[in-house]
Amino acid sequence: MKKRRNPSETMFQLLNYAVFALFTLACVFPFYYIFINTISDNHLVKTGKILLLPSGIQFSNYLQVFQLRGLGNAAFISVARTVLGTLFTLVGSCFLGYTLSKGEMWQRKFWYRFVIITMYFNAGLIPWYVTMKNLGLTNNFWAYVLPGIVSPFFLILFKTYVESIPASLEESAQLDGAGYMVRFVRIVLPLATPIIATIAVFASVGQWNSFLDTVFLMRQSKFFTLQYVLYQYLNEVNAVAATLRNSPTAQHLDPSKLLSPASIRMTISMVVVLPILFVYPFFQRFFVKGIMIGAVKG
Fold first, then answer.
1. In a domain, 240, yes or no
2. Domain containing 85: what range?
């Protein structure tokens, strides 16, 4: 039988729905506002008349922004570092997390604390730069990938998840002669899909949004990431707007479609944000389960 709700419970539910609906709107509206400004008449955007609905819909802004010099190579570098960096982080953090979950590992507590302490203490920017330079990781693509192979935070997530898996599963495989690597690949990894997906989301977003490593370590434009190139264009937005307006393609465009500094800022913002948003739909069904690991005991 259905339990009848009293008026106070109904009001509480309605209040919950209203609060979370407003919170969702507050999160979504900035993206929506930027997007409608990128596809609207640029003259209306310049004068601030686009607020809730697009007007004079056109997509020439994106076509013009994609003509910016160096954008294609920068996009390739960003995609490459995101894919490889996420893959290396998953392999390193998951394997080390599994290793540290085994009580028979030599000096396990010491090595675990040795890794975790790096979350709280940092030598600083200058020692980091000197170390990277001495390792030959300036003007080197691998500077984007190698430093993030082991992340203490991801290690904690994976170790906690592995410890929540019933030990009897591995013990039965061990009795059949399976070693650590076989158990890790054939038993632990398939069962750890939720936490792997969670780590993949965090790592990929971190790699995609990373910016300072390019600023400090890269001097050759062939290693610039998409974020850094677009940051440069944002700082020179007026000059970029003038260049695009004088380009051969722009000569044949309607004046309402000519890029203004405001439309360039918003279009560049969407170019940076949209690709990484496509990561979430693939991992969403695993994400909540993975991130809640360790939140409830017993």
1. yes
2. 71-221
| Residue in 78, 18, 116 with CA at minimum distance from that of residue 225 | 78
Start-end of H helices in the chain: 7-38, 42-46, 60-65, 71-100, 108-116, 125-134, 152-164, 167-175, 180-183, 189-191, 193-209, 212-217, 226-235, 237-245, 261-277, 279-291
Q: Which residue has the tokens 């792997």?
A: 196
Asked if residues 159 and 100 have their Cβ atoms less than 8 Å apart, the reply is yes
pLDDT single digits (tens) 119-144: 888 778 888 889 889 988 889 999 99
Q: Which of 167, 194, 221 is the last residue of a domain?
A: 221
Let me know if residue 217 belongs to a domain.
Answer: yes
- What phi and psi, each to the nearest 5 degrees, are found at residue 35? -65, -45
Both structure tokens of 69: 């010099």
CA separation for the pair 186, 168 (Å, rounded): 15
Tokens of 68: 């910016």
* Residues 152-183: tens digit of each pLDDT: 888 888 888 888 888 888 788 888 787 888 88
Residues 6+ apart with CB under 8 A from 133: none
Tell me how far apart the alpha carbons of residues 158 and 10 are, in angstroms, rounded to a whole number.
40
